[in-house]
């Protein structure tokens, strides 16, 4: 309300209208038929956590059952046992699948925790950078060990 009347001479009703904050435009409503510009990354991350969790349960319980029950238990596991296992592409793939799924599952969970609890953007960025760097290092070294394991060392 733009008047030339001094503020002291305004009635309480006029004064409230005079002091009222300018109104902003109504928020834009996104058309649900159009895809979001942000994408569905969080939905895919959520689905990945559920699927990878189920696969990890199957792979891990299968691994423990085979190693501990059918192959004679912990006392049988030594360098020669691992060398014999990793000479088979089946066991290399099994262990590589467990490594990659467990690492990516854990990184996705920690990424979610960082997003939830790191309040400052700079802190969040640094924590994620450390997380992703360590994940790449572990995945690279683990994959390298599985595929280049030499039993003749």
UniProtKB/TrEMBL annotation:
Pfam families: Sdh_cyt (PF01127)
Transmembrane segments: 43-66, 129-149
Entry's Gene Ontology molecular function annotations: metal ion binding
Cell compartment(s), UniProt: Membrane
InterPro entries according to UniProt: SQR/QFR_C/D, SuccDH_FuR_B_TM-su
Alphabetical list of CDD domains matching this protein: SQR_TypeA_SdhD_like
Heme is among the record's keywords: yes
GO CC annotations, alphabetized: membrane
Keyword tags: Heme, Iron, Membrane, Metal-binding, Transmembrane, Transmembrane helix
Protein name stated in the entry: Succinate dehydrogenase subunit D
Lineage of the organism: Bacteria, Bacillati, Actinomycetota, Actinomycetes, Motilibacterales
